[in-house]
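Need DUF6180 family protein's 3D structure for a figure. Predict it.
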Amino acid sequence: MKHVCLIALLSAAALAPSASASADDFSLGYDVDRFPATQLSVKACHAALARGAAAVGYVTRSQNDQGTLATHVSGPAGGGRALVSYCLSAGDHTAFVIQAFDYSGPDSRATDQVKARVASEVRKAASGR
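Structure prediction for DUF6180 family protein:
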């Protein structure tokens, strides 16, 4: 039951902001995935989020690791964009949610590029590369 609730929570977290994204004032890109905890711990996921954000030139604004939930918030030094990411312990899995915002307007490709780069860093950590 916990597993089903967590998947529902992850889905809601990823989809809820997309309803607001049609407001014509910003763009949103997001990615959600999960891996066996033996492949990716919350701590390793959190470190990968930070590496991915740094790789696209984002500065860490806030981060918190409570063991079963880690958050990482960052954006470029000049502002105008934001990256909000989560790593969650879900039973025998670790899940991540990455949300990339661009406040320059709708249909920005930058959100997809940022979330793809950060997600690739987490997937790389899960694969052991």
